[in-house]
Amino acid sequence: MAENTFGAGEAGENAFPDPQELSYEQARDELIETVKILELGQMSLDESLKYWERGEALAKRCEVLLDGASQRVEAAIETRSVNPEE
């Protein structure tokens, strides 16, 4: 190999950040890219499964964050209806 070669073209096990550390926007954007990659269908079955699993984890992260935001909005509305003068 040449001296300026940086990798073997394969992502390592820890190549992607843990979905639990991503903001909603980061997880959503990565999920969009993951879906695009999967739609190309140019990978082996093993690679496709890894991307599918990553996509599932990203979708779950988005769902958790959206649920949390929804609960915060509902709590704010409830607080506002209990104390309308604030």
From TrEMBL:
InterPro entries: Exonuc_VII_S, Exonuc_VII_ssu_sf. GO terms for biological process: DNA catabolic process. Residues 1-21 are annotated as: Disordered. GO terms for cellular component: cytosol; exodeoxyribonuclease VII complex. It comes from the Bacteria. HAMAP family: Exonuc_7_S (MF_00337). Belongs to the XseB family. This is Exodeoxyribonuclease 7 small subunit. The gene is xseB.
